[in-house]
Structure formats: structure tokens, C-alpha cells
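sry for the spam today, last one i promise. C-alpha cells for design, 330 residues
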């Protein structure tokens, strides 16, 4: 417990997020009492963010607040579910009300946008770490999983992977030391850097897309540890392998301006922190998918195959990319 825990909770967190009628009892008691809707399955996701591992030391507290919720909402999106309630556990080296106010603002803005209520949590003293659990619901039996893909299903990804990896480099302010592997400095204008930095600091959970995919995708996973690695996780969970056609990957205009061709490809395939959705669609569902997802940005990037593992191909020729996914314990 940090000094004045109950007063701290009252000041910064008691009314955080969206008010919901399904919260019978929220922040301030030993536990929350929640009322899920009938004919729905309850889903639960959780993530922990540690300073120096998941975000650089000295990161803006508003960004940390946003990211700590966004990474959980991305998991909810990958299940085709609707988020409802969140629990927040904060480990702080010392009480800092200005830091807490900015953190709470980042968390609350995103929570309100997606009608998520904070219903409980804890604070304690120690190195900076944030644990968040999000609870939500999905119509009974209709939640997306990683396990439903089959050989022949096409692989898709939302958005433009790779942006967040470049954004992290900008946040760390190390790009000036890598001129040999990036394009001329004049192409890395302020607008480009601002866009890429925001893609890392303020990721957008694809909740609306996840809901649209619920009845048309065969499997789904969010991209947190790198596109190729997360495709591999989905394929393995589905009992098959994957072929990625790297020539199909389209970078954002900002990433094209910022990165050399070599780094651009590496970031798109292995950068991580994008929180886009990777999903598979069977041939039978393709027209339904294209209709359901017509308002979203997505790319077709490969196919599930019988052979285990992930094969990277360019115009039919196999290529190699090491370190295609981040492993916290690798």
C-alpha cells in the first residue's frame, strides 16, 4: 500500500471510466459486484506493463495510462467481445499526484470511449508496474479463438504493422545514432515522427473490427509481439502452419518515409506493439468477410498451410528473418 491509499483512490480513480448500470458495486469495497447480460459468455483478459520492459523509463504518464488499458482491450477485440469492466493494480516507487492525475487521464479517456468502468484494484509500493484486467462479454458460443484456422484459410492483418516499432525508436530518441540504416534525415519530418510515436504511445484497439469478424473469421489473435511470431502462435494453436507473402505487406506512408527498406520489412514482420488484429478466413466465408469488413483497413498477407511453422516468401521464394517475435523469457 502506498501512503494514503484510500485518499489516493478517492482522488484519482473512484469515478474513472464510464458509468454503467451493470455495476452493482464498484470501487471502494472488498470486491466488485457485476451483472453480465443474459445469453452471453464472460471473457477475462489481463496484462502487466513494467517500466523498462514494456515502455521506456520516463515515458509520459498519460501514454502509460492509455497503453495499460489499450493492450487489454486489444485482447478483447481479438475475441470478438465487448469490454465492460476493468481492474487496475498500480505499483509505484512513491506517490506523485501529478503523475497519477496524468496517468488516470490517459486511462479514463480510453475507458470512456469504449464504455469501460473501473470497478476495483490495488496500489502498492515498488518499481513502476501496472497490472490491468478487463472483463467483458460476447454472445454465447460466438467468441473468436486462435484455434479455428484450417489449411487453406487466408491470413489477414488490420492496419499497417511496423509503425509502433519505429515509434518506439523515436520515443527512445536513438534514431540519430542509426543514420547508416535509415533514410536521409530530411525525410524524417516532425509530422512523420509524431504519427509513428503516437502509434506506439497511443495504440488503437480494434474492437469494432473484432465484433465484425465474430461470425466470419475462423481464428484471430492480436499483434503484440511481432506479426510473424503472432501468426505462428495462431497457426500452432490451429494445428497447422502459415505462409506469409511479404511482398503483400503494405507499410504506412509515414513508415515508408522514416525507414530504410531493410528496416521497414523487419519492423513490419517482427516489430511488435502494433495491437492490430491477425485473422483467418475460409474460402466459404470470404464474400461475407469482405462485406462485413468493408469499412476497415486490412491486408491479405498469406495462407494457413499443413506444414508446421511460419514460412516467409517473396514472390514464391523463401526468405529468412530471424527474431520474428518478442519473447519476454527467451
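last one done:
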Amino acid at each position: 500500500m502506498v501512503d494514503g491509499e484510500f485518499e489516493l483512490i478517492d482522488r484519482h480513480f473512484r469515478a474513472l471510466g464510464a458509468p454503467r448500470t451493470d455495476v452493482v458495486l464498484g470501487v471502494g469495497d472488498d470486491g466488485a459486484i457485476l451483472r453480465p447480460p443474459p445469453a452471453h459468455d464472460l471473457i477475462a483478459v489481463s496484462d502487466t506493463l513494467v517500466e523498462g520492459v514494456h515502455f521506456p523509463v520516463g515515458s509520459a504518464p498519460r501514454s502509460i495510462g492509455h497503453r495499460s488499458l489499450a493492450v487489454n482491450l486489444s485482447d478483447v477485440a481479438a475475441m470478438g467481445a465487448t469490454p465492460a469492466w476493468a481492474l487496475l493494480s498500480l505499483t509505484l516507487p512513491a506517490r506523485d499526484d501529478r503523475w497519477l492525475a496524468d496517468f488516470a487521464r490517459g486511462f479514463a479517456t480510453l475507458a470512456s470511449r469504449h464504455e469501460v468502468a473501473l470497478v476495483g484494484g490495488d496500489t502498492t509500493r515498488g518499481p513502476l508496474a501496472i497490472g490491468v484486467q478487463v472483463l467483458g462479454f460476447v454472445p454465447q458460443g460466438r467468441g473468436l479463438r486462435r484455434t479455428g484456422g484450417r489449411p487453406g484459410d487466408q491470413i489477414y492483418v488490420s492496419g499497417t504493422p511496423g509503425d509502433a516499432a519505429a515509434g518506439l525508436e523515436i520515443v527512445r530518441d536513438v534514431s540519430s545514432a542509426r543514420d547508416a540504416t535509415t533514410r536521409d534525415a530530411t525525410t524524417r519530418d516532425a509530422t512523420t515522427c509524431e504519427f509513428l510515436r503516437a502509434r506506439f504511445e497511443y495504440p488503437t484497439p480494434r474492437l469494432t473490427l473484432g465484433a465484425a469478424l465474430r461470425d466470419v473469421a475462423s481464428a484471430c489473435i492480436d499483434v503484440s509481439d511481432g506479426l510473424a511470431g503472432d501468426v505462428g502462435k495462431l497457426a500452432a494453436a490451429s494445428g497447422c502452419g502459415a505462409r506469409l507473402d511479404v511482398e503483400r505487406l503494405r507499410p504506412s506512408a509515414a513508415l515508408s518515409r522514416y525507414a530504410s527498406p531493410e528496416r521497414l520489412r523487419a519492423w513490419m514482420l517482427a516489430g511488435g506493439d502494433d495491437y492490430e488484429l491477425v485473422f483467418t478466413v475460409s474460402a466459404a466465408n470470404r464474400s461475407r468477410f469482405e462485406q462485413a469488413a468493408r469499412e476497415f483497413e486490412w491486408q491479405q498477407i498469406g495462407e494457413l498451410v499443413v506444414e508446421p511453422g511460419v514460412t516467409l516468401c517473396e514472390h514464391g521464394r523463401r526468405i529468412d528473418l530471424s527474431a520474428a517475435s518478442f519473447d519476454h523469457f527467451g
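The chain has two domains: 5-139, 154-319. ok im logging off now
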